[in-house]
Design a protein that fits this description.
Blueprint (H helix, E strand, L loop, with lengths): L1 H12 L8 E6 L2 E4 H17 L5 E3 L19 E8 L1 H5 L6 E8 L2 E9 L4 E6 L3 E4 L2 E2 L13 E4 L6 H10 L5 E4 L3 H9 L5 E4 L4 H13 L3 E3 L13 E4 L1 H15 L1
Parallel strand pairs: 3-4, 10-11, 10-12
Antiparallel strand pairs: 1-2, 4-5, 5-6, 6-7, 7-8, 8-9, 12-14, 13-14
Length: 257
């Protein structure tokens, strides 16, 4: 998994973001580039060398995506990958994008790797064992209350999602709000304590598969807006230090009711 993620990162860096070929998918802000496809090819080819018959589900492959449902989840075993999370960032040269590779066993993520090719940071998690960044154990922030030193984050959403998220953050008082554009890297930044809390409502399974495992293993609590547990199939989450997640839900749900 590490070899695959790092090979994909190297493939991405070979492209000039300003000149890379791209094609729009669902909207003007949602597209696939030649770098996404090169990254995907690097991951798939390495996995297939050792596991030629195992299922691979990718953001940029339609095959297998129908299996990503609550009904099918208990029976799903295989690989879930995101060749570039933060394609919009990549295309604009913002250097905040990542490669995500997860191994799913009977519906649960048991291994997760995220690689940031710009900072050359490698996150590795194994369920029930531990999580590291470049070999060093990581843990979520110790922040337990909201103040001007608290870093919270959202990212691009559809159908007014970002506006709704920012409106919720406005209910927290004086906090520092980031909008960074790569859910995978945001979640790893929460896992390593660089960010305190993340709320988003436009996620896809390939965003979550590895990053959820990394964050949870690092001590993060992940819930929906009502505080209920989620799976990596969820499209909406609140993630961070458990006390901060509880405080976020208490403040936003109570004021919205």
């Amino acid at each position: 998994m590490t070899d695959a993620a790092q090979a994909a990162g190297s493939a991405i860096l070979k492209f000039d973001p300003a000149a890379v070929q791209s094609q729009v998918k669902s909207s003007a802000g949602d597209f696939v580039t030649a770098a996404d496809l090169a990254s995907q090819q690097a991951i798939v080819s390495i996995i297939k060398q050792t596991y030629p018959d195992e299922r691979i589900i990718s953001e940029e492959m339609s095959e297998g995506q129908t299996l990503l449902s609550p009904e099918n989840l208990p029976h799903l075993t295989g690989w879930v990958i995101d060749p570039i999370d933060g394609t919009n960032n990549f295309k604009r040269g913002l250097a905040y994008s990542a490669v995500s590779v997860a191994y799913i066993e009977n519906g649960a993520a048991v291994l997760g790797v995220v690689y940031d090719p710009y900072r050359q940071e490698l996150y590795q998690a194994q369920k029930g064992v531990g999580v590291t960044r470049n070999g060093v154990p990581i843990h979520v922030s110790a922040k337990t209350s909201f103040d001007a030193g608290t870093r919270v984050c959202t990212s691009n959403s559809y159908e007014g999602g970002t506006q709704a998220n920012l409106a919720r953050y406005a209910q927290l008082g004086d906090v520092w709000v980031d909008v960074l554009g790569s859910s995978v890297l945001i979640m790893t930044d929460v896992a390593s304590g660089r960010l305190d809390l993340y709320h988003h409502n436009g996620l896809k399974p390939w965003d979550n598969a590895a990053a959820f495992l990394i964050a949870e293993t690092a001590g993060a609590k992940i819930t929906d807006l009502s505080g209920q547990p989620t799976t990596w199939l969820t499209n909406e989450l609140v993630m961070g230090n458990p006390a901060l997640v509880d405080a976020f839900i208490a403040k936003t749900v109570a004021k919205s009711a």
